[in-house]
Structures are given as structure tokens and as C-alpha cells.
């Protein structure tokens, strides 16, 4: 199943859809079946946590709903309430050949305010600084677990999306540069795990203004999908809606500037176009400080 969140118009409500043959079928009514919750709210995304139970009703609703072209709607981030974003560090054979290993490098983190969908685009809040694109597979957790062995890891996966792990370059902590609003683009929809026979063998391509920037495969990852889940779950509990960005080769990252258009495509997961916009520029107390003050 391919599941999207979408709007018919920029100011319209966000709806839930099932995508079939590039047409979106409205299944928003299924959200009435979600359990009521009260504070303290359970961790994770309530819809993702109940997805297996809701799928039969979603299929029935999709059968009855007239489809509309997917390219006529505004696609939002498929995961409404991600609990945390984890990013694979150095998780590519190029890095391994240079002497690094993702198990030694740990994980990077991105704040969930960065979540965005294709229609949101990427806003460079500080356009005077350099921001790189990093295309990779985004793994959406579907079932809570910790200390998950790789042999059982895929049982905890709800599905996959194309991920754009945008990262501002600079001397700040890496997680700071990854956490600007819209720097965690996911889409075009969530493709459930059962539709992808081998997530470790998906070719992908990222173009910027029609120019190929990244052409690779998930087969180039050092830690594949199951190993990544095991790696993350070895240090923390994973909850439904948590997202693991797989990592990407450093040599294929590159800068984007306002006005650029990114096009990302991955086997089995679809394709999406994401526009890059400029922001207001840095406006913080750091501006105007002397170098000695900045160092302090």
C-alpha cells in the first residue's frame, strides 16, 4: 500500500490518501477509527502504530472513493508526528574504504520540526550559508522495540519513503545544521514494507535543475536496512513513526541555492519534485560580534 497525506489546495485541510496507479483515493474517514488518547500521550505516531489494524478499512474506502491525479494535489510529509529522526553516519562503502565504519561513528540526529513533504519545498533560512542535499532511503518504524536483532528488524518497519536529509555546512554541531525547518523532506508517500521485496537493492537518482547529482543504490550502504534498525535499537527504544535516514556517500552531496529544483526518484518508492526557496538570512545576536567574542 502507498499512503500519502495531501491537500487539495494550499489552505485546505490535510487529508489521508491511498495511492493506486498515480491516483489518490481519499480514506480520511479511517482516522475516526483511531483510539482516543489522553495525556500523557503515548510516544510515536498514532496512525502508524495502528496501521496494520486500519489497512482493511483503508482498502475498502479506497475502492469506493473516486481517484484524483496524484500530480494535482499537494503532497505533505507522509508521517504526521515523527517521534525522532535518526541519521546514519558514514553509512556508505566509500566511507568504509576511507577507514570509517558507521558502527564506530554512531548516529546523527535531526529535530522533527525539520519534517516536510514535497509540496512544502526546502527553505534556506540562512541562504548566505551553504546547504547540501543528501538523498537516501527513509525507514519508518511501525512497531515499538529496543535491542532488536537484525533478524527481526524488518518486522518493526512500517515502510519506506524517499528522504532528503538537507544539511547546512559549517562549524556548528552537525545536528544543528540538519534541524532547520523543511530540512527533513520525505515523500512522495509511505510505501509499506510488503511492497518492497529487497530494500537493500533500490537504485535512486537525484537531479538538481535537470543535472544528475546522485546516482547510487541502497546496495552501497554498509549497514543495510535491518542492520540500521538493529544499530539504532541497540541504544534507544524505537517507536511507531520514528524515522531512520540511511546515510549517503559524501562525494555525491552538493549545494543548493534559492530557485533550484530537486527531482528525486527511487525504485519502488516513486519520485518527487522539491523546490528550494530563500529565507530571511541570519538574524541573531551573533551578528556584529567580534571574533574574540564569538570564540568565547
TrEMBL record:
Coiled-coil region: none
Keyword field: Hydrolase, Metal-binding
Region entry Disordered, spans: 277-296
Listed InterPro entries: FAH, Fumarylacetoacetase-like_C, Fumarylacetoacetase_C_sf
Entry's Gene Ontology molecular function annotations: hydrolase activity
Domain Fumarylacetoacetase-like C-terminal: 103-276
Family: Belongs to the FAH family.
Protein name, per record: Fumarylacetoacetate hydrolase family protein
Annotated organism of origin: Novosphingobium mangrovi (ex Huang et al. 2023)
Amino acid at each position: 500500500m502507498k499512503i500519502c497525506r495531501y491537500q487539495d489546495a494550499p489552505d485546505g485541510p490535510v487529508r489521508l490518501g491511498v495511492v493506486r496507479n498515480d491516483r489518490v483515493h481519499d480514506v480520511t474517514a479511517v482516522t475516526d477509527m483511531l483510539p482516543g488518547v489522553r495525556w500523557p500521550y503515548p510516544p510515536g505516531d498514532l496512525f502508524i502504530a495502528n496501521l496494520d489494524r486500519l489497512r482493511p478499512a483503508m482498502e475498502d474506502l479506497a475502492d469506493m472513493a473516486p481517484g484524483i491525479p496524484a500530480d494535482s494535489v499537494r503532497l505533505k510529509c507522509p508521517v504526521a508526528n515523527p517521534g525522532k529522526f535518526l541519521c546514519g553516519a558514514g553509512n556508505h562503502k566509500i566511507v568504509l574504504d576511507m577507514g570509517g565504519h558507521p558502527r564506530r561513528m554512531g548516529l546523527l540526529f535531526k529535530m522533527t520540526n525539520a519534517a516536510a513533504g514535497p509540496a512544502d519545498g526546502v527553505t534556506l533560512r540562512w541562504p548566505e550559508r551553504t546547504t547540501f542535499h543528501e538523498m537516501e532511503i527513509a525507514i519508518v518504524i511501525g512497531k515499538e522495540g529496543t535491542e532488536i536483532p537484525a533478524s527481526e528488524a524488518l518486522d518493526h518497519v512500517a515502510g519506506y519513503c524517499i528522504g532528503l536529509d538537507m544539511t547546512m555546512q559549517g562549524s556548528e554541531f552537525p545536528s544543528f545544521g540538519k534541524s532547520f525547518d523543511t530540512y527533513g523532506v520525505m515523500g512522495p508517500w509511505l510505501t509499506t514494507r510488503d511492497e518492497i521485496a529487497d530494500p537493500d537493492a533500490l537504485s535512486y537518482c537525484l537531479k538538481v535543475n535537470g543535472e544528475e547529482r546522485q546516482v547510487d543504490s541502497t546496495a552501497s550502504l554498509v549497514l543495510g536496512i535491518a542492520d540500521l534498525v538493529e544499530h539504532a535499537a541497540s541504544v534507544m527504544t524505537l517507536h511507531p513513526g520514528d524515522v531512520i535516514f540511511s546515510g549517503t556517500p559524501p562525494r555525491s552531496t552538493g549545494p543548493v541555492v534559492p530557485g533550484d529544483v530537486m527531482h528525486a526518484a527511487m525504485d519502488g518508492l516513486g519520485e518527487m519534485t522539491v523546490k528550494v526557496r530563500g529565507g530571511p538570512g541570519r538574524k541573531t545576536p551573533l551578528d556584529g560580534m567580534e571574533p574574540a567574542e564569538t570564540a568565547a
